[in-house]
Write a structure and sequence with these properties.
- α1 packs antiparallel against α6 and α4 packs across α9.
- β5 and β6 form a beta hairpin.
- The protein is an alpha/beta fold.
- A six-stranded mixed beta sheet has the order 1-3-2-4-6-5.
- Helix content is 40%, strand content 10%.
- It has one domain: 3-Layer(aba) Sandwich (Uracil-DNA Glycosylase, subunit E), CATH 3.40.470.10.
- The longest helix is centred in the N-terminal third of the chain and has 20 residues.
- The protein contains nine helices and six strands.
- The chain is globular and about 50 Å long.
């Protein structure tokens, strides 16, 4: 499935008239509906359905989502967070990005501290969580086996990532992890937002993109990173502080 074309968002249009914002919200809803309906990668779709049927013992009484996980957040967002892929028993269970697992605990705690979320917890789809001036997407919208999508599967999802970039008036893009960073940079190169050498990923990396955009890098808040101390709460918070400062300067 290919995304329906929506008008490209202008960075200057975020505070546009109410009709422009209404149309963007409609396009955002339509894009998410298309993502959920995608059946492009049979390996991933079969895996997600199998996990939804067998379930983890702790969630035997819950109904799993088991479908591609749509974008989440504010259609007028100036901060766009790009993650890797849904967790098999996290977002693949709950149907919402970074919801129901420990990565989400880290992410939404950090977002709430900086005023991008109304609460620091994200446990289920209907828990009242809202994002302000922030949206979340993934390089891959289906949970992959061993949390490792194949290159072709990531390429299949590139159309959804491109459609998200084109729709949102984001001026700060935060890539969580090296794979998400590569996908953002690939798109930026295609759009000629970057000239010169390809920027390297690192925690706290910062790169100016075209048309007033900024790319930030952070280690992914996976248990592999947080349990080992590779990513600390202070390190993670500092990235959102930087994002907030950039947005405040641009306001």
């Amino acid at each position: 499935m290919t995304p329906s074309k929506a008008p490209r968002a202008s960075i200057a249009s975020r505070k546009g008239d109410s009709e422009s914002r209404r149309l963007r919200q409609l396009a955002w809803t339509r894009l998410n509906e298309q993502i959920v309906a995608c059946e492009a990668c049979q390996r991933l779709r079969n895996y997600c359905r199998r996990v939804a049927e067998t379930k983890r013992r702790a969630y035997q009484d819950e109904k799993y989502w088991g479908q591609p996980v749509p974008n989440f957040g504010d259609a007028d967002a100036r901060l766009l967070i790009v993650g890797l892929a849904p967790g098999a028993h996290g977002a693949n269970r709950t149907g919402r990005m970074f919801t129901g697992d420990r990565s989400g605990d880290w992410l939404f705690r950090a977002l709430a501290k900086r005023g991008f979320a109304n609460q620091a917890t994200s446990e289920r789809y209907d828990d009242g969580l809202q994002l302000y001036d922030c949206a979340i997407t993934n390089a891959c919208h289906c949970a992959p086996p061993a949390n490792k999508p194949l290159r072709e599967e990531v390429r299949q999802c590139r159309d959804w990532l491109a459609a998200t970039f084109e729709l949102l008036p984001a001026t700060v893009i935060l890539a969580l992890g090296g794979l998400a960073w590569r996908q953002v940079v690939d798109y930026a190169l295609e759009e000629t937002w970057i000239s010169g050498r390809r920027p390297k990923f690192a925690h706290g990396a910062r790169c100016a993109l075209g048309e007033g955009r900024t790319l930030l890098g952070s280690y992914h808040p996976s248990q592999q990173n947080t349990f080992t101390g590779r990513l600390t709460e202070e390190m993670f918070d500092s990235v959102f502080t930087a994002a907030k400062e950039i947005l405040r300067t641009d306001a």
